[in-house]
Amino acid sequence: MPAISRTFPRYYAAMLRGLVTQHCQRLLREQAQLVPLRTPQECGMTVYLLHFDRPYQHAKHYLGSCQDLERRLTQHGKGRGARLLEVVHAVGIGWQLARTWCGGKQRERQLKKQGRGQPPLPDL
Predict the structure, then answer these.
(1) φ, ψ for residue 59, nearest 5 deg
(2) Which of 16, 55, 62, 104 has the greatest number of beta carbons closer than 10 A?
(3) For residue range 73-103, what is the model confidence (pLDDT) as tens digits?
(4) How far is the C-alpha of 72 from the C-alpha of 66, rounded, in Å?
């Protein structure tokens, strides 16, 4: 029986990673061409993700939706608008706007359900 090379699994894994990466890059290029980017004004409602600078108890993110994103972020910056952000503001934890999506309350609910027990949301 011939000896199986120990490098085969590593070579095979590297080859698969390369194929998957190429496939994903191709899909992203095709998707970018098919779906024009829309501004929040064109969406109507915007769903947004805030990432906290450090966790507050179990919370590392806040997901919300609004019609006027700038106004809503200003409210959050002053510690108003959502109880979690009020508490986070009171203890001095900062946050960053991590991502936005077009959509309203239904899209917000869908993203919240998707994130349970998984990494919060995929990177772009």
Answers:
(1) -85, 130
(2) 62
(3) 999 999 888 999 999 999 999 999 999 888 8
(4) 7
Q: For 17-62, how does the pLDDT look when each residue is reduced to its tens digit (9 = 90+)?
A: 555 556 556 655 655 554 455 555 667 889 999 999 999 998 999 9
Identity of the residue numbered 123: D
What residue type is 119 in one-letter code? P
Look up residue 19 and give its amino acid: L
User: Left if phi > 0, otherwise alpha if psi is -120 to 50, otherwise beta: which for 81?
Assistant: left
Query: 79 phi and psi, to 5 degrees?
Result: 80, 25
Q: Give the single-character DSSP code of 26.
A: H
| Torsion (CA) 63, 66, 71, 77 in degrees, nearest 10 | -20
Phi and psi dihedrals of 120, rounded to 5?
-50, -60
CB of 50 closer than 8 Å to CB of 98: yes
* SS3 of residue 29 by DSSP: helix
CB 121 within 8 A of CB 115: yes
Residue type, 20: V
